[in-house]
Amino acid sequence: MEDVLRPLIVFGSTLAVSVAAGLLIDRLLRYSAGRRPGSRLPGLLRRTQWPLQALLATAGLHFAYPLAELHLAQDDVIRNVLATMAIFATAWLAMRVADALAENTLDQYAARSADIARVRRLHTQLGMVRRVVTTVLVVTTAAVAMLVLFPGLRTLGTSLLASAGVIGIIAGVAAQSTLGNLVAGLQIAFGDSVKIGDTVVVEGEWGTVEEITLAFLTVRIWDDRRLTMPVSYFNSKPYENWSKGGPQITGTVFLHLDHSTPVAAMREHLYDYLCGREDWDRRDWNPLVTDSTPTSIVVRASMSARNADDVWTLRCAVREELLAWLSRNHPYALPKIPTAMVANAPSMAQ
After folding, report:
1. 20 to 30 A from 306, CA-CA: which of 36, 62, 103, 158?
2. From its phi and psi, is residue 87 left (phi > 0), alpha (psi between -120 and 50) or beta?
3. In what order do the strands lie in the sheet with 199-202?
């Protein structure tokens, strides 16, 4: 009977203590979050409850296992498995803590800084560093778990290290694209060429950078489609970044009109219309006749806005308003297709 009760008491009490410790830590974090409403860090750290519980349970079972006195032939294997699970739980906990610290740092920086571009750059850099650290941490954890806790795999590890040069050459040739994207991702994160939240034009598509990973960059197009491209594309081919140097942007509207168009009156009406628009930032506006052909003139109306989204809405509104105003007040200014009756051609007979 003791052979059954002893393991149950040891394992049950260990799990109970680990769960109680995890709940106590969570309760302390909740209390700290209530006492400090201006800081998000205690609330963000509460996301570590599951990896913390896993770490406490596996580590507790690993150290308490000898007290159960099971005397099984697989005791060493079981303890090694528990230790491996504890190591992976530690890596999981470290990643959650790093995410919480990164998000809290970004929030504090965004609250202090009014420069949206700097906030986007920090967001991109923190996201890229988190992915690199996560990848390295997972690979290192797996290597430690296999080579240290399982002696049978140490010989295999020694053989792999002895042939690391050959394996490195083969892996480098086979993973040229992946390694190139990884290096390109780091260059983008710390080179400030494109950031999360930037408005870009890529392959003729206009959209906003939504995500940057170690291998791919995702652009959310204006119609909610996602354009996913390798990160290396942005280091090897030209593209438009409308957010580079600041979110302010100037938009243009081109109208093909008749030569009799009252440009001065249209200029006054455009200014009056822009003054009533909240998306015009009042930095710049100017309608100009930029070209003339035998049948029409080209009027370019330019107007500035705070960001790319506002300038798109403003361009569409200005185009619609000017055409409607011309149609109501000066219909003769709209483009015409000249037509005329053609007389019978003279006979070509000689």
Report:
1. 103
2. alpha
3. 226-230, 216-221, 205-212, 199-202, 240-241
Q: How far is CA 76 from the centre of its chain?
A: 45
* Alpha-helix runs per DSSP H in 150-214: 154-162, 164-174, 176-191
What average pLDDT does range 38-50 have in this prediction?
A: 82
Count of all residues that appear for the chain in the document: 350
pLDDT-derived band of residue 174, with 50, 70 and 90 as boundaries? very low
**At residue 133, does pLDDT exceed 90?**
no
Average pLDDT estimate for 222-241: 84
Task: Please report which helix (H) or strand (E) contains residue 136, including its range.
Answer: helix 116-149
On the CB side of 47, CA atoms within 13 Å amount to 15
User: Is CATH 3.30.360.10 the classification given to domain 180-241?
Assistant: no
Domain 249-333 listed as CATH 3.40.50.1970: no
Of 86 and 247, the one with more pLDDT = 86
Spatial CA neighbour of 222 closest among 248, 242, 244: 242
